[in-house]
Amino acid sequence: MLKISRIVRPKKLQFKRASFVAVRLRSFSFTSTYQKMADTKSARDPIVEALHEFTTCDVSDALCKLKFRNGGFLSGLIMWSPERQSGTTKIVGPAYTVKYVSNDDPTPKLSYHYIDSVPQGAVIFVSCPPRVPNAVYGGLMSTRAQASGAVGSVIDGRFRDVQEHRDLNYPIFARDTGTSPPAELVKVVGVNVPVKLATNDQDMTVNAGDYLIADLNGVVVLPKALAEQALPLMKKQVEADSKMAEEIKKGMSFTEASKKFRN
C-alpha cells in the first residue's frame, strides 16, 4: 500500500495546495484499489486454495486415514480435455450437482437450464443413470460454464463435442464419449441435490458443496464436513513421503524409510 511520508517543504519553495490534494487523492485511489483486491482474495474459499497444493492421491490418503470409504475416489472417471490423460491439468472446487433421470421417472423436469445457474469457481458434476448410451453434456455447455467462471466439469456418463472442449482448453472428466443428445432418454430433475455415482462398483454420493479434486489420477470427492480434518493429514503425509523419497534415493530401503518417517 502506498504510504505518504511527511512532506518537507524547503523554505524557498512554495507548494500549491492543489498539488498536495492531487497526491492525496492518488494515494486514496491506490489504497481503495488495493483494498478491493484484498477483499476479493479473502472472499475465496481457503480450503480450495489449500487443496491446489495436493494431488488426488494425497486427498485419498487423508480420507483413508479418516475411514472415509474408498478414500473418496470416484471410479471410472478420467480426463478427456484439454487432453486425454496427459498434461498437468487439475481442477478443484465445490460441487455443483446436476441430476439426470430416465424420462419415465415421474419427477418433473427442471423448468430452467442448469447451465445458466452455475456459480463461479464451481466444478459441475453431472449425474446420469447407468448404461445410458446418449451424451448428457456437450460443447455449448462448456462454453457457457467457462463464461460463468466454472473451473471444469465431471460427467458421470457420456459427453460429446470432444474437440470443442479442447479448443476452449476447458477441463472435462467423464466415463466415455457419445454422439447423440440426451433428450430421448433422460431429463434433468434437480441441481445442487445429492447424487449417486452411476456404477455398481461403488456406493458413493456427491453432495452439493462437497469438494471435487480431479487430475491425471482420477476424480476424488472430499466431503465438506471432513475438509478441515483432512488438510493437516495431507500436509503431514506429503512431507513424510518427500523425506522418504530422498532417503530411498540414497540407498535406504522402503521398509526402513517407512518406519523412520511414517510412524
Could you describe the 3D structure shown?
With 263 residues, this protein is α/β, with parallel strands linked by helices. The chain has 2 domains: 48-223, Glucose Oxidase, domain 1; 231-261. The protein is built from 7 helices and 11 strands. Strands 1, 2, 3, 4, 5, 6, 7, 10 and 11 form a 9-stranded mixed sheet that branches. Strands 8-9 form a two-stranded antiparallel ribbon. The two termini are 46 Å apart. It comes from Pyricularia oryzae (strain 70-15 / ATCC MYA-4617 / FGSC 8958) (Rice blast fungus). This is DlpA domain-containing protein.
Spell out the CATH superfamily of the largest domain: Ribonuclease E inhibitor RraA/RraA-like
Q: What is the CATH class designation of the largest domain?
A: Alpha Beta
CATH topology of the largest domain: Glucose Oxidase, domain 1
Overall form: elongated
Number of strands: 11
Helix and strand composition category: alpha/beta
Secondary-structure element string? HHHEEEEHEHEEEEEEHH
Mean pLDDT: 87
Helix residue percentage: 25-40%
Radius of gyration: 25 Å
GO molecular function: 4-hydroxy-4-methyl-2-oxoglutarate aldolase activity; metal ion binding; oxaloacetate decarboxylase activity
Keywords: Magnesium, Metal-binding
Pfam families: RraA-like (PF03737)
Cofactor: Mg(2+)
